[in-house]
Structures are given as structure tokens and as C-alpha cells.
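Format notes (please read before filing issues)

Several people have asked whether sequences and C-alpha cells are stored in separate files. They are not. Every record keeps both together, in the order shown below: the sequence lines, then the C-alpha cell lines. Line labels are part of the format and must not be stripped during preprocessing.
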Amino acid sequence: MTAPHRPLRTEVVPEICVEGAVEAIAFHVKAFGAEEMFTHALDDGRVLHAEISFDGFVIFVVDDFPEMNNGVGSSPKAIGGSPLVLHRDVVDVDAATQQAVAAGATLDFGSEDMF
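Then the structure lines:
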């Protein structure tokens, strides 16, 4: 077995599958201050694997590849929604919300301090 290209992860890392991973990564950087750590795109532009970080918390981002899943898509668009919700604690929820909206996010309901 060969050595990994980075230290072995011991935490669970969520992976989000989207249609348009390049755009999704750019949105997360602009809207939420994520750091793009690594992206491996194929010749057709689709992202096979990417890693973004929110203050050290890593999320993998990939494009949907139905051809690798018997023609069945796995993105929220393909399955009609997503069973995954990601939460993030911030010091100033109003500023964080304004930043996300300025980057193109839409709000289903207003922001508030809770939990």
C-alpha cells in the first residue's frame, strides 16, 4: 500500500454531489468564506474530487456522474432534494447572512440567533 498524499484523516468528511461543482465551489468561497484546498477536474470540466474547508472543517465536492452509477444521478436535482443539511456556527449571523445573499444565496426564512 502506498503512503497517502496527505496525513490520514480520522474524522468523517461529508461529500456533496452537485451539478456544476466548479460553480458550487466558487459560491461556497464567496458566500461562506470557504477555502478551496484541492480540485481534480476531468478533461470535460467535471469535478471528480474537490476539497473545500470552512475554518478547518473539510467537505468534499463532486460533480454528478450518472454514468458511474448505472445511469442514475445522485445530485439533489437528480433525486428531487437532499437528505443532508449542513449547519455552521458563526459569531455574527446577520453579517454571515448578508455575505451569503450578496453571493447569490436565497433565503427561505430570515436569520436569527438560536441554539
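For reference, the curators noted about this record: The beta strands are 15-18, 35-41, 47-54, 57-63. The chain has one domain: 15-97.
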